[in-house]
Amino acid sequence: MTIRDVAQAAGVHVSTVSRAFSASHLVKRETRDRVLAVAAELGYQPNETARALTTGRTRNLGLIVSDIANPFYPPLIKAAQAYARVRGYQVFVADTDEDVHAEEELIQTLARQVDGIVLVSPRLANDVIARLGGDLPFVLVNRQVTGLSAVLMDVAHGATLAVEHLAGLGHGHLALVGGPRGSWTSAEMRRAAGRAAAEQGIRLDVLGPNAPTEQGGIKATAAVLRTGATGVIAYNDLVAIGLIEGLDDREVLVPRDVSVVGVDDTVAGRLNRPRLTTVAMPTAPAGRTAVDLLIETVETAGTARATAQTTLATSLVVRDSTATSGPSAG
């Protein structure tokens, strides 16, 4: 199949087909979608080598996450890759293992091989991200840096819902087990939970920083028990699962003695016993939206284009790890 076959089948000029693949911002969305659908049906694949020589672009994108083993990330990665493929791009995925030095090195390495980078929950300081983002199109997920486009999940709303849920169950003393240092999500949770607790007239103890892992939750168990809190909000589902394990080892039962809320709504939380009450995060939509923003940024390079910020909704999923307040675990 050739580009002329696609143009004839789609009822457009050959130049329109070319722009749909190489400069989609110049084509109406409905026209672009029709051209891409026809191309897929006919099995047409553009010559990427020739296109790279013409446009100076690789049609490759980078996607960097802090821990690929965390079940929060695979749905986001899968959605990002699938959407990029539809748009004629490929995605290189890299994992920093929660190491800020590795994160900066990966950005610098990928910058030589890709047209732009999606940086998910970065741990680098804002000024470092801004400097690196000045050399290459960036889109951030769950981080705000002036001058860079971002896709945010409404963590603040989720933390507020978690506090209100626990307060409604009669818990007058809560603990927030925060995440790692440098986490935008953890900072947002802390601010929103603090406001919500004050509005509800209940006490909130903030514990952290903590590793965003099951082991991090286990290690936080003793500190949680020392607070005497009967309701706990964990940084993510992994921390919540580790906390439940640590409490069980001390014969403190969830939710009889302590109620626990996670964040992310991962498969691990749904399979855990008790099944985890959690804040559902829109991971797959975030992956698609971030790639869409990045491609638009790449394809409008050299033109004046304002940065974009999109906030995606979160919700509370109530399961078995929360219940009405009982005797204090402390």
TrEMBL record:
SUPFAM superfamilies: lambda repressor-like DNA-binding domains, Periplasmic binding protein-like I. InterPro entries: HTH_LacI (IPR000843), LacI/GalR-like_sensor (IPR046335), Lambda_DNA-bd_dom_sf (IPR010982), Peripla_BP_I (IPR028082). The keyword Lyase does not apply. Residues 1-55 form the HTH lacI-type domain. It comes from the Bacteria. GO terms for molecular function: DNA binding. Keywords: DNA-binding, Repressor, Transcription, Transcription regulation. The keyword DNA-binding applies. This is LacI family DNA-binding transcriptional regulator. It comes from Streptomyces atroolivaceus.
